Every structure is written in C-alpha cells, then in structure tokens.
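Hey, I'm writing a tutorial for new members on how sequence and structure tokens pair up, and I'd like a real worked example in the thread rather than a made-up one. If someone can provide the structure for the chain below, I'll link this post from the tutorial.
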Amino acid sequence: MKKFFTVNSLKELDDIAKELAASLKGGECAALIGELGSGKTTFVKALVKHLKGKTEAASPSFTLLYQ
C-alpha cells in the first residue's frame, strides 16, 4: 500500500502522525521517501510522540552530511 501526503503545516503533519500511530498494531514496516529537508525526521518525531515512545528520533542523513 502506498500513501502520499502533501502537508502545509506542522499541525497537519502532527495530525497525520497521530492518525497513523492509532492505526498501527505492531510489527509493521514503513519507508519514508523524500528530499533532504522535506520533513521525514520531523514526521518520525511526531509519530514517536504519539506512540508514547521514549526514544528520540534523529536524522541519519543530517549526521552523514555534516561528518
């Protein structure tokens, strides 16, 4: 299944993350595809928040770019 979203605000991004978090049962796999700086890490941070996660999400591409 593929879903594409166009998000115009952080509130919209947070709403989508909240909706996705509520639909997950555990064990699912997802891929986030987008240009550098497109909001993938911001989305993951919102998703982790709504999943009540205790792990901080970090951008692997930011780390690689600025090594």
